[in-house]
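Hey, weird one. I pasted the N-acetylgalactosamine kinase isoform X10 sequence into the form twice and got a warning about non-standard characters only the second time. First submission, copied straight from the form history:
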Amino acid sequence: MPVLYDRRTHRLLWILSSSHGCGTRHANSCGTCENTYSPAGQYKPLISEHFGLSKLTGMNCLVDGNIPPGSGLSSSSALVCCAGLVTLTVLGMSLSKVELAEICAKSERYIGTEGGGMDQSISFLAEEGTAKLIEFSPLRATDVKLPSGAVFVIANSCVEMNKAATSHFNVRVMECRLAAKVLAKHKGLQWDKVLRLEEVQTKLGVSLEEMLLVTEDALHAEPYSREEICRCLGISLEELRTQILSPNTQDELTFKLYQRAKHVYSEAARVLQFKQVCEEAPDNAVQLLGELMNQSHRSCRDMYECSCPELDQLVDICRKFGAKGSRLTGAGWGGCTVSIVPTDVLSSFLTNVHEAYYQRNSSSLALEKHSLFATKPGGGALVFLEA
């Protein structure tokens, strides 16, 4: 259930339009500045295509922000969304929040990361005080009122993983794509056009729980070799390499299809269960939501394998000191945990987690300032103009 944490809204981009070429600069993941890659520059083909423009106005930008880079709090998506909104402002044009979210999601794929659109969607569609159920095809967002008596706490493991510089993220995307194709072929569907596991469920017209049964029946837990995938789909190795695998996954020898499909379908079911608990608001709502978060982390750790020892340790510490639920957030392999914590134990929770994880881990001390904080849902991206 996406939430735009209010700490994330404290991002400032000051801009001065100019008549000369695009000289945009930005802070990269290392905190330095460079001219070689511009988030605003990503929009040139996208905005030109959308509005039929032949020439774009150049601009000089100063970027500042307080989102820890590489922390799983969508700092890169925040920068891209900010750049998109500012670019439209400079051009004197407008798009709906939905259109802008879709363009921003597409622009992030220019660097080779096969990401989805949830981060960009919540960056624009978020509203203060409520979580959002984000759905796609078409993109839409539904308010989900969170229970009172608890807050979310963000804790940074201080382990950074640059998903654009590693293959972990894209391999998981490809494993899900291959799983979707094998499941579609197993059920007699036209598999070659299928890209997402959700498409198989939609084409079959069954529930998520039924898709978990289909996964158990159709896929095995042992990793699939490239040769076995080819046999399942009735294609050659060359066709697999050139028509399905992405450039940064072509050297992978094995793929875990069962584990990835089981995680995706069970995680989607947990999202709907989370929404249902929030709507029904039972007396033990916080406890029930916490258990769903705990199940989610176990699945991320064991089935999707996107956790790391530091995240697992931090999750355990958070649960030990009062969190009803805790899980990794973001792409994984580092970054932050998010925990649901009763408000009456918040003060002791923060003190104990600080001592147990940060004070005993010298490598975390440098990032301590941005490492642990309570938060609540905040509003989406805005442009502030000088009067």
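That's the output from the first submission. The warning seems to come from a hidden character in my clipboard, not from the data itself. Confidence is low (pLDDT under 50) at residues 7-43.
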